[in-house]
Amino acid sequence: MPHTVVIAPDSFKGSIPAAAAAAALTDGWRSVHPAARVRLLPMADGGEGTLDAFAAAVPGARRMPVTVTGPEATPVAASWLLLPPTAEAPGGVGVVELACASGIELLGDPPRLRPLDADTRGFGEAIAAALSHGVSRLVLGIGSSASTDGGMGMLAALGARFADAAGDEAATGGRGLGAIASADLTGLAPLPPAGVQVLSDVTNPLLGERGAAAVFGPQKGATPDDVRALEAALASYAALLPADPAAPGAGAAGGTGFGLLAWGARLVPGSTAVAELIGLGDAVADASVVVTGEGSYDGQSAAGKVPAHVAALAALAGVPVALVAGRIAGDADVSGFAASASLTELAGSPEAAMADPARWLREAGAALARRF
């Protein structure tokens, strides 16, 4: 009887999206076991690739195009995903990904970083489009942001008004945060009937040494002086909004987590929620073997990342699980995997692996298939 394989990788960031990675692994596996039944369930944790994961896994999902204001204050062609109606969400579920509307990837390669001026307005505009469509529930992925604006741009796009000391509308972006003297949230769009679930693998608070400015600001181009200015601005902004800046995840996406908490949304671990929404647990329980992976598997990957969550589901079901990674670091614990494959080792160097990830993912799929 043919065996059943579940292929559930995260994206290999900076290299290949999760859906394409899953397809390449499948091609490799089937080159060894052509009769295998393969289920492709690409995963995500709320960052880039979240829409793709749902689109691949949920029958009837529809991409809804929308033009929004990108992180360079120019129009960006984005989309959100409409999932079919359910008993709990008769108007359907809207999935909106910050990365495709306000993400750092939209700033080019190499990125034209705007640490004080990029904002989340486009993300808010995409959310507003989903609300206007009439969805009953929102699922928001907030990884890969380009800004440190506390979600101010997003809230402004949803109807909030931020004013400076003169009563004029405050500029958005991190630079504008410090000038805010008042926040009026009475015009905010109401939450959809079934609520708003926010996917993030980040538990950082808004402020302090583990906060949005200190930890993530430099990744977005902030200098030490910028970080200090952003920290002060976020602190004054936080005093105006009805949310706890110390809440886990408030610092996610440059403080967008905090802005969403102020709106009334609920933050949840990204990979766990995506797995539940695409039915990964049931698929794993019916599988003979599971394959997961990510770009870099290291000592921190066991803390909430996709491969660790997939491995935990496989362990509960008593199903062997294999790991594929662009690189497997020396401090990584792979003892929970029945087999593993490193694209860097297969290709001979990180540069070769990055140059043609699909090829080496096919090689990895074939190598793992021979092990089972």
Sum this structure up briefly.
By secondary structure, the chain is of the alpha/beta class. It has 15 helices and 13 strands.
Characterize the structure shown.
By secondary structure, the protein is of the alpha/beta class. The chain has 2 domains: 4-41 and 282-371, Rossmann fold; 50-271, Glycerate kinase, domain 2, CATH 3.90.1510.10. It is 36% helix and 19% strand. The chain contains 15 helices and 13 strands. The protein has a 6-stranded mixed sheet, sandwiched between helices. Strands 2-1-11-12-13 form a 5-stranded parallel sheet. The protein has a two-stranded antiparallel ribbon with strand order 7-8. It is globular and about 70 Å long. This is Glycerate kinase. InterPro entries: Glyc_kinase_flavodox-like_fold, Glycerate_kinase, Glycerate_kinase_RE-like, Glycerate_kinase_sf. Its EC number is 2.7.1.31.
Any descriptors?
single chain; 372 residues; alpha/beta; Rossmann fold; Glycerate kinase, domain 2; 6-stranded mixed beta sheet; 5-stranded parallel beta sheet; 15 helices; 13 strands; 19% strand
The H-and-E topology, N to C, reads as EHEHEEEHHEHEHEEHHHEHHEHEEHHH
CATH top level class name of the largest domain: Alpha Beta
Regions with little confidence, pLDDT below 50 for 5+ residues: none
Task: Tally the structural domains.
Answer: 2
CATH topology of the largest domain: Glycerate kinase, domain 2
Write down the overall mean pLDDT: 94
Query: What is the spatial order of strands in the main beta sheet?
Result: 3-4-5-6-9-10
Q: Number of helical runs?
A: 15
EC number: 2.7.1.31
Protein name: Glycerate kinase
InterPro entries: Glyc_kinase_flavodox-like_fold, Glycerate_kinase, Glycerate_kinase_RE-like, Glycerate_kinase_sf
GO molecular function: glycerate kinase activity
